Amino acid sequence: MKFDLHFHTTFSDGHKTPEEAVQIAKKNGLGFIACTDHDIINTRIPELARMYGIETLEGVELSSADYGNKNKAAHLTCYARKFQGRILSVLDNIQEAKTSKVLQQIEKLQKGGFLIEEEAFLEYWTKLGSNIANLNNGNIKEYLFKNPLNEAIAREKIGETYEQATFVRQALSRTGDFAHIGSVDNLPEYEPSVEICGELAKENDAVLSIAHPNYSFKSIEEFQNLVPSYVERGVNALEIHYSTPPDWIQTILETRNRFNLLLTFGSDCHFNPKRDGKHGTLGELNSHMDPTFIENEFRKFREAL
After folding, report:
1. For 205, what's the count of Cα atoms within 13 Å in the CB-facing half-sphere?
2. Phi, psi (degrees; rounded to nearest 5) at 262
3. Is 74 helix (H, G, I), strand (E, B) or coil?
4. pLDDT tens for each residue of 81-132
5. What is the pLDDT of residues 128-169, one digit of tens each?
6. What is the mean pLDDT of residues 6-21?
7. CA–CA separation, 156 vs 192, rounded Å?
8. Confidence at residue 110, expressed as pLDDT on a 0 to 100 scale
9. What is the three-class DSSP state of 78?
10. N or C: which end of the chain has fewer CB within 10 A?
11. Distances 194 to 111, 215, 257 between C-alpha atoms, Å
């Protein structure tokens, strides 16, 4: 069975509506999908998937933070038959804080000389059908660089190390080398800790997976050093992203065996107009992996839920 356990729609930072995403899933021959929009449970996807004869469950990509490790961002995909209880209010709080954060960032960028207006920014994403309550750094970057003059401004501020592809990490993230350009740090800690995410997963009999480890960690060494603490706090799965290279795959499989974890597989499809290395097409899984192995691991994932 073809499947995808990691993709996004306009409920967060994807470029297709839930309706369009499910239609593409059907066209691509997928028999099972789990949508993992950022910090929101996309309940529309399961409704539509069933209409198209596609099996599904609920999913969400949690914007978590490892507060014991320099506030390291930790993206965790979580899957359950039906989410309920405390996780719903936690997600509401995240969205409220993210909205405040994005608007403050726009104001800061504007004061710093970038050509960006709050009203035009919100209007742009509204017309695209995006969830205004769930915009993030990626939305800021995409909109900002629609104006080529902002490219020149960013290059002037950052210098020779500037790359548009890394602008989010460099200038919009709290831990970036140029965080003073577009990051804000006067918000309360709104991202749930890894511990809280583990508790929320347990309360929902859920699978909690580290998303795209090859992007979430600076190196294999960092991943190996930190994973034990993640497992202690409730993580019970690791993702093999469609672009995970062979050395990372080997490390992930060794770690899975060491801690008896599940595996999840996904494209992290955002339906971007232009293809990039981080986001595949819906249903695109890792080409380095044996399809039979993937199918067997997917069966274990389903049995766990």
Report:
1. 7
2. -80, 165
3. strand
4. 999 999 999 999 999 998 999 999 999 999 999 999 999 999 999 998 888 8
5. 888 888 898 989 999 999 999 999 999 999 998 898 888 998
6. 95
7. 35
8. 96
9. strand
10. N
11. 34, 17, 21
Whether the CB-CB separation of 184 and 108 falls below 8 Å is answered with yes
- What 3-state DSSP class applies to 203? helix
Is 263:256 a contact under the CB 8 Å cutoff?
yes
- Contact present, 18 and 43 (Cβ < 8 Å): no
Residues 22, 48: contact at Cβ < 8 Å?
yes
What residue type is 114 in one-letter code?
F
> Which residues, at least 6 apart from 107, have a Cβ–Cβ distance to it below 8 Å?
118
Kindly list the structural domains of the chain, giving each domain's residue range(s) and its CATH number in brackets, ordered by start.
2-86+192-304 (3.20.20.140), 92-182 (no CATH)
The mean predicted confidence, pLDDT, of the chain is: 94
Question: Which is nearest to 5 in space by CA: 113, 64, 80, 69?
Answer: 80
User: Facing residues of 7 across strands?
Assistant: 269
pLDDT the model gives residue 71: 62
Strand runs (DSSP E) across the chain, as ranges? 2-4, 30-33, 55-56, 58-66, 72-80, 207-210, 237-241, 262-266
User: pTM score, two decimals?
Assistant: 0.88
Joined together, the tokens standing for residue 286 give 């890792």
**pLDDT at residue 72 tops 90:** no
